[in-house]
Amino acid sequence: MSTTERTRTLRRSMIGEARRATVEHGLSGFTIEQLCETVGVSRRTFFNHFASKDDAVLGIELHADVEAIDRYAEGGIVPGGLDPLDSIVALAIDQFHRVGIDRADEVLVRRVFEREPALVARFLSATDVQLARITDAVRLRFGWDDPADRRARLVTEAAAGLLKVTAETYFDEATGPPFDELLTQNLRLMRAAITTGQDSTP
Predict the structure, then answer these.
(1) What are the C-alpha distances in Å from 99 to residues 4, 29, 172?
(2) Dist. CA 173–CA 109, nearest whole Å
């Protein structure tokens, strides 16, 4: 196992344990020290990855995806030649594979939100920050330098809606196509709906 894979596994362990502890005890019912002891890491290691207990529960990692988004902005990560919407979808698929989320994760997250509803607002705020970063990256990647140019924001918001519907479908079904396949299907359906009002693909 590579260093990157070990780090990813460690982060997922901390996130998973933080979520389980929240469901069982509530956010105030356990400490970072207890979490670290259960996972087998030091407090310093925890704070190398997360700014707070809340962030660990929500899976909001320090500097998460900053390097990947910077590389995307410079023309990397996904194939060149893709249009803006396709490139964001490809970036989302790349990130999904790197994080390694599965359907069981969503069940646990929903139980966390049921136990601690206030975390929903924190999660939505973090999502807004991420969308703003991606909007800036799209602007750089496609050379839309004029601050008044709304194209990057429009494309990013469209991609966010596409991802939301895909995630809801993916996590609501116990079985079904892989996330990337479902996202690609939904992208095709969306394009067909916008241009013709129907899906003409056999």
Answers:
(1) 11, 27, 19
(2) 15
CA pair distance 144, 78, nearest whole angstrom = 19
> By the 8 A CB rule, do 112 and 19 touch?
yes
Please tell me the total count of domains within the chain. 2
According to the model, what pLDDT value does residue 165 have? 87
Q: Domain range for residue 121?
A: 65-197
Mean pLDDT of all residues in 190-197: 85
Higher pLDDT, 136 or 100: 136
Is 174 in the same domain as 139? yes
Spatial distance between the Cα atoms of 54 and 110, rounded to a whole number of angstroms: 15
The answer to whether 111 and 21 are in contact (CB under 8 A) is no
Quick one: pLDDT at residue 58?
A: 84
Residue closest to 133 by CA, chosen among 76, 71, 85: 71
The string of pLDDT tens digits covering residues 14-33 is 999 999 999 999 999 999 99
